[in-house]
Design goal:
heterodimer, A: 81 residues, mainly alpha, 2 helices, B: 100 residues, 26% helix
């Protein structure tokens, strides 16, 4: 896999992880406005990066496979990624 | 109640002024950048929660976490947490590790 693609995927993974961490934090701190801002910021960034990736390299999940011919099977297997 | 007595030994060698500096900077660091400019400092700091007021004997207490500064996403993924105060890898502190 190309370096740029790998790097982008890594960043998406990192942002997804960050989102989960903040999700858990907010579960116990529902009134923390600062954390909420960071969460929304992270979620937005993650979505943007994800959309970019999918536009460039193909779907990240089967449910975002929305073109013809079916593109999902063309993406690398987990052990190739 | 516990204060600094609960500080893990691994962090005890850090001069107090260094960790205090890291802490104050960490709070000042812009949250919207989703990172802390000097997270190396954050990494050194131990969690020093406020004493639990009115703690009763034979009850277990968990100090409440407060948002301080966060690791940048990639470092967070690597460390397994985005909260520097929770970043305590197993084995780093012999006092709390079985085979550390």
């Amino acid at each position: 896999m190309h370096d740029a693609r790998e790097k982008m995927l890594r960043e998406i993974q990192a942002l997804e992880f960050m989102e989960i961490e903040l999700n858990l934090y907010l579960n116990t701190h529902p009134y923390d406005q600062q954390a909420l801002m960071i969460f929304m910021n992270t979620a937005q960034q993650q979505k943007m990066l994800r959309d970019n990736y999918e536009r460039m390299y193909g779907p990240l999940t089967a449910s975002s496979s929305n073109s013809f011919p079916w593109p999902w099977i063309e993406s690398p297997w987990p052990w190739e990624a | 109640m516990f204060g600094n007595n609960m500080m893990p030994e691994a962090y005890a060698n850090i001069p107090s002024d260094v960790s205090a500096e890291g802490k104050s900077k960490g709070k000042a660091a812009g949250a919207y950048k989703i990172s802390c400019s000097d997270f190396d400092m954050c990494k050194l700091q131990y969690y020093d929660p406020q004493p639990i007021v009115g703690a009763r004997l034979a009850h277990a207490y968990v100090p409440f976490q407060c948002l301080c500064c966060l690791y940048p996403p990639l470092l967070g993924l690597k460390q397994g947490t985005i909260f520097p105060e929770l970043d305590r890898p197993y084995g780093a502190d012999p006092a709390y590790s079985y085979d550390g």
